[in-house]
Design a protein that fits this description.
Blueprint lengths: L12 H14 L12 H8 L3 H13 L3 E4 L3 E4 L4 H25 L4 H15 L2
Antiparallel strand pairs: 1-2
Length: 126
């Protein structure tokens, strides 16, 4: 598992960890039932607080991406297609917010924006 912490980012460290682990689960880099590094081990490797790592793992467990076996550690949950779909929908919504802001700043019409989306969809389906 590879995690990169950006200390200059405005994003809290636990969010960076959560997002990167979530992404690795969704894209298949981390497989179902694969053991994750221990909370303390990951904190040590990343040179961050144990509490920060614990919070990231708690968020992932709350979202259903990982599960904990007492005295054994944390593991990747079985892929739930609905969970993955929801995670991707959240990402799309975030990107669409950014697109909308840019479109408004460029004075793009609704039709121009839809035309751009249609073109992008067509190109990516090839």
């Amino acid at each position: 598992m590879y995690i990169l912490i950006d200390n200059h980012s405005g994003t809290p460290i636990y969010d960076q960890i959560t997002e990167q682990i979530r992404a690795q689960i969704i894209n298949g880099t981390l497989q179902e039932n694969q053991a994750l590094p221990s909370i303390r081990g990951l904190a040590k490797d990343l040179h961050i607080s144990f509490i920060t790592t614990k919070r990231a793992y708690e968020e992932l467990e709350k979202e259903g991406f990982i599960y904990t076996v007492p005295a054994k550690g944390c593991y990747v949950s079985a892929k739930n297609t609905e969970l993955i779909r929801e995670a991707n929908l959240r990402k799309i919504e975030d990107h669409m917010d950014e697109i909308t802001k840019l479109a408004v700043s460029c004075n793009l019409s609704r039709n121009e924006l839809i035309e751009m989306l249609d073109f992008s969809l067509e190109e990516n389906r090839k």
